[in-house]
Design a protein that fits this description.
Blueprint lengths: L2 H12 L5 H8 L3 H13 L17 E9 L4 H8 L5 E6 L6 E7 L2 H12 L4 E8 L9
Antiparallel strand pairs: 1-3, 1-4, 2-3
């Protein structure tokens, strides 16, 4: 990857709806050269898709949940957790925490229901909640 590829990626992160012509103009390359670079970045898997980011409504509550369990089996827990639609991200992590989840819920009552579901999973030791107060910035 050279400076042009990095510029293309940076511009697409800002606005994925930019046309190839607009990208080419901003990085000072021809449209065909820019299109070739874009295709190459996609083929390499560096660019894996173009997505719409939906704004959260004022009623949406976000939280991170730490999961601590007795038996290390992330895959088994991940499959159970996949059934909870409000869980937007599920990560196995290093350190004292076994897994961390990012959830978006419409109410504290629903967050409590999710906590109860998680706490009732076999060999779950503890679920700790960290409420998101506000997004300072976000990179998707």
């Amino acid at each position: 990857m050279d400076k042009f590829d990095r510029q293309i990626i940076s511009l697409l992160v800002e606005d994925a709806r930019q046309s190839v012509s607009e990208l080419a103009r901003q990085i000072n390359l021809s449209r065909s050269a820019t299109a070739d670079r874009l295709k190459h970045l996609e083929e390499q898997g560096i660019i894996q898709g173009y997505h719409a980011r939906l704004g959260s409504t004022a009623a949406t509550l976000c939280a991170y949940l730490e999961l601590h369990y007795r038996e290390h089996n992330c895959d088994a827990y991940a499959e159970q957790i996949r059934a909870i639609p409000e869980v937007k991200r599920c990560c196995a992590i290093s350190g004292q925490v076994d897994m961390i989840l990012y959830v978006e819920v419409e109410s504290m009552a629903r967050l409590d229901e999710i906590r109860i579901i998680l706490e009732q999973m076999e060999k779950m030791v503890m679920v700790r909640t960290h409420m998101v107060l506000r997004d300072i910035w976000r990179r998707d």
